[in-house]
Amino acid sequence: MKERLIPLLGAALAFYVVFVLLFPNTRIFDTDSKISLPTTEDKNKYGLYAARQWLQVSNINTLSLRDRYDDLISQAILPEQGNLLIVSLPLRIDASKNELNQLSTWLKSGNNAVFLVAMSDWPDWAKRSTSSTIEEYLNLLGLELFEKIEDEVTEDTSDEAATQEPDTTVEPSDILRQIDPERTDKQLVRATDHPLTRNIKQLAVWRQETEGDDWQLRGDNQLRSTLPLFIDKETSSPAIWLTFSGKAKVLVTSHADLFSNRALEKSDNAKLFRNIVNYMLTPAGGVIFDDMHQGLRDIYDADAFYKDPRLHATLFFLLALWLTYVLGYTNRFSTAQEKLSRLKLSEHVTAIGDLLARRLHSSAIAQRLAHHFFNEVRSYYGQPMNGEPVWDKLENNPAIEKKLLARTEKLYQQAVSHEKINLNKFNNYLNTLRRELQ
Fold first, then answer.
1. Which of 53, 96, 114, 373 is least enclosed by beta carbons within 10 angstroms?
2. Residue-range domain boundaries for the chain
3. Cβ-count burial 388-401 (b if 16+ within 10 Å, e if not)
4. pTM given for the model
């Protein structure tokens, strides 16, 4: 009995240590996955799936951004200017300072943005965030958020009270964290004539009773100004502003739930979305949805890995197997016998190849991969196999995806210029082109 009890206690302690290391601040049964998020893949009420589908049906180039803002500048499928970025605030994944600097540079170079800010409404997904990301983005545009509060009339005849000026500005940080479950439908009406307000009578939005009626935007200096385009029909408070940052046109809304799946069909919300696209997007530009900072990302996501139910099932299976061994008839496996094996010629060649690969520059390896690929294509078209590029043949092949070909050619040009490139990505592009040629 003692031989079984001690291993059992040791196994339980080891399991506890492993569990704490793997799941320091997470829960196995997480309810966040049930919350509707403002992403292009979410088909529930707060998602932007319908907005992207409408753009694609209208033959407008769209992109779901799954990487950081640095990727905006390096996107080969988008022009350098005339694009439109749609961001829902607050973020679920914080943007770094370097990201914000990259975004500022991208905007000032001639691109535009729409910031759907949860000022007056507070969707369920926004409850998991704080106001810090909202203030950082507004500061990036040279704007600041404040709330005007009416002065209370008091009977104070002292000289100090007569000379003291009341403080009418309240910082929004504490107000943003107030959560009121009671919501009411609201309407926004035009505040001025502008191409963005054309053919719009009213917009449908949701808000909380205790927030957002008197919130306003202002520039952080006299050179920065905002133009209110829509106001609250009931309170006459501004709700949508237009401002400029360098060459960029920037639209800021006080309601994050303005173009969601449930809101797009309400009132004239779809007309406003159409006006924004017509006003801010050039014919060659694309509409970019910031999905990365709302949880959809191509880069490694540790939180998503730990929340994956397949990981939990695997760990529980291994635990059950271990407990079965610990509590089994014997606590020891048979003695392992060392097996002597000779190195094969293929293993020697692999080792030499790995050694050379560490010494070669990534551009040289990429050029050699491209050389073999070009010869395969030349063999396919019956041309001499001299390793010369055949981009013209690939461009004229209807089976080849143009965007993929453009990305591959861009990486090849970087390799020719002896720049460091991502070999995994380049090799994957070449393999995809091979499959499309078959």
1. 96
2. 38-149+165-294, 345-437
3. ebbeebbeebeebe
4. 0.57
